[in-house]
Each structure stands twice: as structure tokens, then as C-alpha cells.
């Protein structure tokens, strides 16, 4: 399974860890993917999407299921 949100298309972002002495080592920030049951065209489907995308869906539709 890829670490990419199918709704927003967001993927992992890379950067540096910084120690107290400002030494840089590479790291990556993964997307907060969660499993959600969403209603699409009358069917309940389990989708792995980011928590931010789920919050936006519930905010715009006004309910726990996406239209």
C-alpha cells in the first residue's frame, strides 16, 4: 500500500532531523492515513485516506458519509 492519500494526493515529505549540535540527518514525514468507511453511490466502502481529508469531507457534507 502506498503512503499517499487517494483524495488529496498528498504523499510523504522529506527533510532533516536537527540535533542539538545542528547535525543534519535525513528523515521523512508520512501522511496520517487512517481507514474510514465512506458511502459512495449508496455503497459503503473502506478507504485509507488522510485524517485531514476526512475532516474536510465531513465538514463539507455535514455528515459522516461522503456523497
Main attributes?
single chain; 67 residues; alpha+beta; two-stranded antiparallel ribbon; 4 strands
Please report which band the strand proportion falls in: under 5%, 5-15%, 15-25%, 25-35%, 35-45% or over 45%: 35-45%
Total domain modules: 1
User: What is the subunit organization of this protein?
Assistant: single chain
How many beta-strand elements?
4
- Net shape: elongated
Q: Tell me the series of helices and strands, N- to C-terminal.
A: EEEEH
Give the helix tally: 1
Question: Compute the gyration radius: what is it?
Answer: 16 Å
Poorly predicted sequence stretches spanning 5 or more consecutive residues: none
**What separation lies between the terminal Cα atoms?**
25 Å
Helix content: 10-25%
Mean pLDDT: 90
Main sheet: strands, sense, barrel: 2 strands, antiparallel
Helix-strand category: alpha+beta
* Sheet with the most strands: spatial strand order: 1-2
Amino acid at each position: 500500500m502506498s503512503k499517499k492519500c487517494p483524495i488529496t494526493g498528498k504523499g510523504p515529505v522529506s527533510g532533516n532531523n536537527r540535533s542539538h549540535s545542528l547535525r543534519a540527518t535525513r528523515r521523512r514525514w508520512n501522511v496520517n492515513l487512517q481507514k474510514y468507511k465512506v458511502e459512495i453511490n449508496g455503497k459503503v466502502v473502506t478507504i485509507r485516506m488522510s485524517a485531514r481529508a476526512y475532516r474536510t469531507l465531513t465538514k463539507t457534507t455535514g455528515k459522516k458519509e461522503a456523497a
